[in-house]
Amino acid sequence: MLKAGVLGAGHLGKIHLRLLNQSDKYELVGFYDADETNAKNVEAEFGYKYFNSIDALIEAVDMVDIVTPTLSHYDCALKAIANGKHVFIEKPITNTVEEAEDIRELLAKHNLRGQVGHVERFNPAFIGVKDQIINPMFIETHRLAEFNPRGTDVPVVLDLMIHDIDIILSVVNSKVKHVSASGVSVISETPDIANARIEFENGCVANLTASRISLKNMRKSRFFQKDAYISVDFLEKKCEVVKMKDAPENPGDFDMILQNAEGIKKQIYFDNPQISNNNAILDELETFAHAINTNTTPVVTLNDGTEALRVATQIINCFNQK
């Protein structure tokens, strides 16, 4: 088993600690947290070993799981890589694209593995339909959350929208051509609600909305492509595929048939993909262990995390220009 250590024992860090502790892919060695009072409380409550320095923890493990505030991701990753350790980094990968590129280059130089915690890639609803998302030409996403002070130190783009940016980049096989966006700060010092439009070189357009001041929670994405409409509900873990095919000459009484202005008839049919319940965070951590053990490419690479941050940064820059 790989020896794992966690940097950061906040809300998400405690979840990572619990899952690593129960995983048969890892041996949880312990954790470090800058808040000594919190760290000792976590150690007392859960029994995980608390290391009183980052260096001591890194030295004792094979893999470092970085679940600290984004501003510290870069320094933590540099320490881990310098000591020859594989790194799992929560999203967003770092605070700047330049920092992300540094980490990516250093990992490659030291022949180490790295993965970014874009957990929605492991959402069972997305897994159930991702193979059917083929060359989408219009994508619409809504990620709305009720207000929570945790996370408001960064724009809503880095807090919420970046999940959808990563999903979109993973299914659109084309380079980003143009980004436009607008955002409004309602409660926080940075935008709490934002809308972005991403245009790709192949003609695909993605329209993204994210809010952390909504009255209800929503995480839905819709993908439109030739002869198909695909809906993914990341929150409810449900998905729906609506397809069209040439209508039969003699349709049945219950067949749904549409006819366009040119007289072409299409039959609409529904596909309900199989969804397997899973723990997405556990899956992302365990697939990373597999990538380390087999020397293969992680599901969400540092390049993926860097490109998601690059687009997110372009969106934030649009706010600053207004």
Strand numbers in spatial order across the main sheet: 7-8-9-6-10-11-12-14-13
Strand content: 25-35%
User: How does the overall form come out from the CA principal axes?
Assistant: globular
Low-confidence spans: pLDDT under 50, at least 5 residues?
A: none
Sequence of secondary-structure elements:
EHEHHEHEHEHEHEEEEEEEEHH
How many domain modules?
2
CATH topology of the largest domain: Dihydrodipicolinate Reductase, domain 2
CATH architecture of the largest domain: 2-Layer Sandwich
Largest sheet: 9 strands, mixed
CATH class (first level) name of the largest domain: Alpha Beta
What is the number of E strands? 14
The number of helical runs is 9
CATH fourth-tier homologous superfamily of the largest domain: Dihydrodipicolinate Reductase, domain 2
* N-to-C span: 51 Å
What is the radius of gyration computed over CA atoms, rounded to a whole number of angstroms?
Answer: 22 Å
Summarize the entry for a quick read:
Helices cover 34% and strands 28% of the residues. It is α/β, with parallel strands linked by helices. The mean pLDDT is 93.
Describe this structure in words.
- There is one protein chain.
- A hairpin with a 4-residue loop joins strand 8 and strand 9 (205-211).
- The chain is 34% helix and 28% strand.
- The termini are far apart.
- The chain is globular, with a radius of gyration of 22 Å.
- The protein has nine helices and 14 strands.
- The longest helix is centred in the C-terminal third of the chain and has 19 residues, at 302-320.
- Helix 4 packs parallel to helix 5.
- The protein folds into two domains: 2-112, NAD(P)-binding Rossmann-like Domain (Rossmann fold), CATH 3.40.50.720; 121-279 and 311-320, Dihydrodipicolinate Reductase, domain 2, CATH 3.30.360.10.
- It has helices spanning 11-22, 36-46, 54-59, 73-82, 97-109, 124-129, 156-171, 280-294, 302-320, and strands at residues 2-7, 26-32, 63-66, 86-90, 114-117, 138-144, 176-184, 193-200, 205-211, 218-225, 228-233, 238-246, 256-259, 265-271.
- It is an alpha/beta fold and 322 residues long.
- The strands form two sheets. The protein has a nine-stranded mixed sheet.
